[in-house]
Q: What sequence folds into this?
């Protein structure tokens, strides 16, 4: 049997810019910020000039009006998930927006193919969800001095190296499910010893055995000669 998806009736629709409206960016919890496609310059260097379309020349006044309309500086809660914002031609626009989020407290960037946000600072962010991205290290995360809840499930974080950068934050809960570092020996003990304010790891509250320092097995240093 063939069942249509709920979105099936919209599959032939195109995205359009609404040039005259009173909606501000800070009023939208899930705005679509993905650019329509590569710039004309990038298409030229790719040798794809045939895909170029005549685009409207945006004046400086229109750029300033759009900047005021976005109003990212006053945004406190924002969801930019599922937009593939890690694509090369999306990164510049994404970083432009992230740098303006000086008051955001809750931010979701789930499943965006993101690799490195280390140049970004989110001074008031308390909750950050970057599940299902391509981070390989804690060093690639944005600077989040006020973070309380951090979710990094289904990335590719190999080791716990760099986790100490979060040591002086008020981080209370951390999720690292489905990352290679989850299989590191003494994983929970190492995480809790590195993060003194942490109360919950991977949805499980701190256990008594998590408080003891990681044990180094004496036997692991011996070899058996037969």
A:
């Amino acid at each position: 049997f063939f069942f249509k998806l709920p979105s099936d009736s919209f599959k032939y629709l195109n995205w359009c810019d609404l040039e005259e409206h009173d909606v501000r960016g800070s009023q939208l919890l899930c705005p679509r910020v993905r650019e329509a496609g590569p710039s004309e310059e990038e298409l030229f260097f790719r040798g794809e000039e045939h895909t170029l379309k005549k685009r409207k020349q945006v004046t400086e006044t229109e750029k300033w009006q759009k900047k005021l309309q976005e109003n990212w500086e006053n945004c406190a809660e924002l969801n930019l998930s599922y937009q593939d914002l890690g694509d090369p031609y999306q990164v510049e626009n994404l970083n432009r927006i992230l740098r303006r989020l000086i008051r955001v407290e809750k931010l979701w960037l789930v499943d965006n193919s993101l690799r490195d946000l280390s140049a970004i600072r989110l001074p008031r962010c308390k909750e950050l969800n970057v599940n299902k991205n391509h981070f390989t290290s804690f060093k690639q995360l944005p600077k989040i001095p006020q973070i309380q809840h951090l979710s990094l499930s289904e990335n590719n974080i190999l080791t716990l190296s760099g986790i100490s950068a979060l040591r002086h934050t008020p981080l209370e809960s951390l999720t690292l499910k489905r990352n290679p570092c989850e299989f590191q020996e003494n994983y929970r003990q190492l995480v809790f010893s590195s993060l003194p304010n942490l109360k919950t790891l991977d949805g499980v509250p701190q256990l008594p055995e998590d408080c003891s320092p990681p044990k180094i097995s004496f036997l692991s240093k011996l070899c058996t000669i037969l």
The CA atoms of residues 39 and 89 lie 7 Å apart. Residues 88-99 form the longest helix (12 residues). The helical segments are 40-46, 60-70, 88-99, 187-194, 208-211. The longest strand covers residues 77-79.
